[in-house]
Amino acid sequence: MTNKSIIQTEHAPAAIGTYSQAVKAGDTVYLSGQIPLDPETMELAQGDIKEHIQQVFKNLSAVCEASGGTLQDIVKLNIYLTDLGNFALVNELMAINFQEPYPARAAIGVAALPKGAAVEMDAVMVLK
């Protein structure tokens, strides 16, 4: 049995269901999906889709930091979009938030996301 620990930070939105912000098992951290919630208000961030995508990266970053890592330690990123027309914008913002080598990634078009969000991301991170 692998030792696992639960990661929790007030700098990212609190879980809105029966899950943890992240779970660390060994040197691997599994980050739950983040939508563009403001952690202070628990409401969708103000602004357009660009600001929403950036808020998701901020939320993921906060959970990474609480786990002892950074976005750069992410090895797999899953992106869920209600409009795949926003995919180019995701690429643009990934280039700002990540450095090469980039993580493996999947981008998936979905019909709907929690709280009416247009974007959600989850990730797997490996700590050094």
UniProtKB/TrEMBL annotation:
GO CC annotation, single: cytosol
GO molecular function: deaminase activity
Domain of life assignment: Bacteria
Family according to the record: Belongs to the RutC family.
UniProt-recorded name of the protein: RidA family protein
The species this protein was found in: Hydrocarboniclastica marina
